[in-house]
Amino acid sequence: MHQTTDGVANQSGAVFRTGMFASLRIRDFRLLWVSNLAAAFSMQMETVARGWLIYDMTGSPLDLTWVMLAYMLPVLVFSLAGGVMADRMRKKSIMVTSQLLNGFATILLAYIIYSGDVTFTHFIYFGLFNGTVMSLGMPARSAVIPEIVGEGSIVNAMALQSATYTLSRILGPVAAGGFMAYLAGGDTSSTLGVGIVFYVIAMLYIGSAIVTGLLHYTGDPSRSETTGMIADVVEGFRYLRHERIIVGLLIMGFLPMTFGYNVMFLLPVFNVDVLGGGPDDLSFLVAAMGVGALVGSLVLARLGDIGNKGRVLFVAAYFWAAFLLGFAISETLWSAMLFGIFAGLFGTAMGSLNMSVVQLASRPEIRGRVMAIMWMTYGFMPLGLIPISWLAEVVSIETALLVSGILLAATMALLGIFYPELKTIDKGHGKEESVSDTRAASDVDQTLEGR
Question: What is the DSSP letter of 305?
Fold first, then answer.
C-alpha cells in the first residue's frame, strides 16, 4: 500500500510503521483520534451528569436502568442500518452528520435542564434519539480506520483508539463531577450546574464533528453495485455464513468479554461487601483498572503488527481470567488494585486485538456491515450481567466474580475447540494444523493479504 501526500493509505497494500504512536504520524488518523477523544469524553461526562440528576430527581435505581436501556436499545435495532450506510455512502459525511446531530440535540437538552423544566421522560426521548444517531454513525467510524492507516498499522491504530476510551473513562467522570460540584456550589439538586455541564458536553460533540470535517479522506464506498437496504443486510449475514474466522472472532468479542467485563459493573458491590470501602476506595479501584487498561492499549500499540495474533488472543484471555479470579479472592484494597491493574491490561489488549483482526479479516466493501454486527453483539453484553448479578445477590459477590472468571476461561477454551482456526491467525494468515484448518487458514490469508 502506498502512502499519499495527506497521509492516507490506499487499498493496494499496507503501510508499515514502527513505534508506540506510529499511527498518529498519519495526519488523518491524528485528527480522527482527537475527534474520538472528544466524543468519548462527552459520552463519559454525560453518563455521570445524567445519572446524578436522574437519581436526584427520582431516587430510583430502576429509572437509571430505563434511561441506560433507552441509549442501548437503538444499538440493537439500527446498527445494521448504520453498517449498510457505511458501505454505500461516504463515511466522512456519516461521521460528521451523526456528531452534529448529537451536539445539537444535547444543546437542546442542556437548555431544558438549565431552565429547570427537565423531566424524566426527556432523558428517555433524548436517549432514544442519541442512541439511534450513535448506532448509525459508529460502523462508519470503526470501518474507516483501516482505510486511513493501512492494514499494516491497524493493530497500532486500534490500540491507540482504545486508549482514547480508557482516558475518557478515567478522566471524564472526574471532569464532570468537578464541574458539577463547582458550578452547583454544593447544591446537588442544582439543574443550573448540570445544565452548564451539558452545554460543555454539546460543545465537545460539535468539536468532534468539526475535527472530523478536517479529514482529507472522504471514505468513499468500496462497492459499486446498487441494491436495496434489506438485500444489503442479507448479504452481510450471508457473507458471515461462509467466514468461520470472522464468526469465531465475533463470538469471542461477545461471550468471553461479556463475562470479563462483569467486574466493572459490580465494583460498587465488591467495594462495600468485601472491602468495606467508601467512595474514595471505589474511585481507587476504578482508577486501577483504568490505568491497567491504558497500559494495555499502549503496550499493544507498541507491539504493532505482531505475529501469532490468534494465540495472543487466547493467552491474553486466559491471563485476564486468572487476574479476575485473583481479584475475586482479594481481601484488601491494595491486592484488589494490583489484580485490577492486570485484569484491565489484559482485557483491553484482548478487546483491541480482537477488533483489529475482525477489521483485517473483512472485505472492504462489506466491512461496515461486519462492524455493525459487532456493535450489535456489544449491545447484548448487559444481558450477561443479569445471571451474575443474581448470583451476587443470592450467594455472594466473591462467588459471582469467581464464576465470571471461570466462564471467561471456559468460553475461550470452547472457542478453541469449535473454532481451532482462530489459533492459526498469524500476521494476517493462518498456519496449517489440519486439512480442514488449512483451507480456513488459506481463506484468511487471501482475505487479509490478497486484496
Answer: S
> From the CB of residue 182, how many other CB atoms can be counted at a distance below 10 Å?
12
Q: Could you give the CA distance from residue 153 to residue 145 in angstroms, rounded to a whole number? A: 10
Asked if 78 and 136 touch (Cβ cutoff 8 Å), the reply is yes
pLDDT tens, residue by residue, 150-166: 877 888 888 888 888 88
Ranges of the chain with pLDDT below 50 = 1-16, 188, 429-451
Q: How far apart are CA 261 and CA 274, in angstroms?
A: 19
Calpha distance 442→439 (Å, rounded): 5
Burial 248-266 (b: 16+ CB within 10 A, else e): bbbbbbbbbbbbbbbbbeb
Phi, psi of 274 (to 5 degrees): -100, -50
Contacts of residue 65, Cβ cutoff 8 Å, sequence gap at least 6 = none
Rg of the chain, C-alpha, whole Å: 22
3-state secondary structure of 84: helix
At 89, list the grid cell.
455512502
Q: Which residues pair with 9 in a beta bridge?
A: 3
327: its cell numbers: 481479584
> 81 near 112, Cβ under 8 Å?
no
The pLDDT, as a whole number, for residue 426 is 80
**Is the pTM above the cut of 0.90?**
no
Q: Give the span between the Cα atoms of 25 and 367, in whole angstroms.
A: 24
DSSP class of residue 217? -
Quick one: cell of 84?
449498510
What spatial distance separates the first Cα and last Cα of the chain, rounded to whole Å? 10
pLDDT at residue 328, as a whole number: 94
Q: What is the DSSP code string of 92-126?
A: HHHHHHHHHHHHHHHHHHHHHHHHT---HHHHHHH
| Separation CA 204–CA 41 (nearest Å) | 8
C-alpha cell at 324: 479476575
Give the CA angle between residues 430, 352, 359 to the nearest 5°.
55
Residues making up the chain, counted from first to last: 451
Closest CA to 50 of 167, 130, 104: 130
Residue 13 DSSP one-character state: S
- What is the Cα–Cα distance from 389 to 395, expressed in whole angstroms? 10
